[in-house]
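FAQ

Q: What does a record look like?
A: Structure on top, sequence underneath. For example:
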């Protein structure tokens, strides 16, 4: 079945390893007949959640903050699958991607909203300079808990270690691993 796949790249580097792996995943997914869109969220103006709770109001908007997240909400709603691609920063997601994830709140607060946002699949592509798998574990755990809470079906996790310099991903075995992740959909 053809899927609408949204790939959110959390790296602040426009041509960094996360972007390269995300593009490889998206290209392979398109080869399988899926629609894909790759968005570099660090290039967007997205503020963190203000905990104002106005999104909880009966006729509340997805979020009262008028920033680029307003453009992202419709894409999130129509996506069949959301893929997160990011480097690890201090054992977690970069702030740019974390801000987007925190702003999922209006889409999933309350049982009705969470059910509406639940029929999705997800995947995670992490990269970093470290060769130690344990260094990636906190970010992986964060993703797994989030996907479980949202009711998403996890379709795979790729941890691409040893990618410290820009361009490392393009000449590594991880490029094919990102393609394989998409081919398994």
């Amino acid at each position: 079945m053809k899927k609408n796949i949204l790939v959110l790249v959390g790296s602040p580097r426009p041509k960094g390893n996360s972007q390269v792996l995300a593009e490889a995943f998206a290209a392979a997914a398109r080869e399988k007949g899926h629609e894909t869109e790759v968005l570099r969220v660090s290039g967007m103006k997205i503020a963190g959640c203000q905990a104002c709770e106005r999104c909880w109001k009966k006729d509340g908007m997805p979020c009262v903050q008028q920033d680029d997240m307003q453009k992202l909400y419709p894409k999130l709603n129509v996506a069949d699958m959301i893929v997160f691609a990011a480097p690890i920063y201090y054992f977690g997601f970069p702030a740019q991607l974390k801000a987007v994830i925190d702003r999922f709140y209006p889409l999933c607060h309350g049982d009705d909203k969470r059910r509406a946002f639940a029929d999705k699949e997800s995947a995670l592509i992490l990269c970093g300079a470290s060769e130690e798998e344990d260094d990636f574990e906190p970010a992986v755990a964060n993703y797994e808990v989030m996907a479980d809470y949202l009711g998403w079906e996890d379709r795979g996790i790729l941890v691409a270690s040893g990618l410290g310099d820009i361009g490392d991903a393009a000449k590594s075995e991880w490029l094919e691993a990102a393609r394989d992740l998409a081919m398994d959909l």
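Q: Is there anything notable about this one?
A: The two ends are 9 Å apart (CA to CA).
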